[in-house]
Amino acid sequence: MATIAIRDLLLRTEVGFNPHEIGKKQDIVLNIRIDYTLQGEELSDNPEEALEYRSICKEVIGHIESRKYNLIEKVASDVAELVLARDRVEAVTVEVIKPNALRFSKSVSFCTTKTRKG
């Protein structure tokens, strides 16, 4: 078992349900921790055996930036499901950070962990 962490992935999407948020893209920051099964890449140094985190990142960006959300909880759930759909992924933890969501606060975040069933 191994872990890949994608940190501080800055995206822009429409997220929120308050009148001042509707129709406006906002910054969100994602931290994604992927627990997966190794296939010998740590011994062979063969890129074809590695978990392709670049393609995962591109898929997440395309998915999130093309949608509208009311809640950061749903953003986290969608990202977790996308990542967990990869065969080798056993668990994923996603933190979604919404900067400046509250007055006098740097940010608000939501974090969820999902695991492969069965």
Automatic annotation (TrEMBL):
Which NCBIfam families does this one have? folB_dom
Question: What are this entry's molecular-function GO terms?
Answer: dihydroneopterin aldolase activity
Identify the metabolic or biological route this protein is part of: Cofactor biosynthesis; tetrahydrofolate biosynthesis; 2-amino-4-hydroxy-6-hydroxymethyl-7,8-dihydropteridine diphosphate from 7,8-dihydroneopterin triphosphate: step 3/4
The record's keywords, sorted A to Z, are:
Folate biosynthesis, Lyase
**Does Lyase appear among the keywords?**
yes
Q: Which family does it belong to?
A: Belongs to the DHNA family.
SUPFAM superfamilies, alphabetized: Tetrahydrobiopterin biosynthesis enzymes-like (SSF55620)
**Highest taxon listed in the record's lineage:** Bacteria
Q: Which GO terms describe its cellular component?
A: cytoplasm
Please name the source species.
Xiashengella succiniciproducens
On whether DNA-binding is a keyword of this UniProt record, the answer is no
Q: What is its EC number?
A: 4.1.2.25
Query: Which GO terms fall under biological process for this protein?
Result: folic acid biosynthetic process
Give the lineage.
Bacteria, Pseudomonadati, Bacteroidota, Bacteroidia, Marinilabiliales
Q: Which reaction does it catalyse?
A: 7,8-dihydroneopterin = 6-hydroxymethyl-7,8-dihydropterin + glycolaldehyde
Q: Domain (Dihydroneopterin aldolase/epimerase): give its ranges.
A: 4-114
Q: What is the name attached to this protein's record?
A: dihydroneopterin aldolase
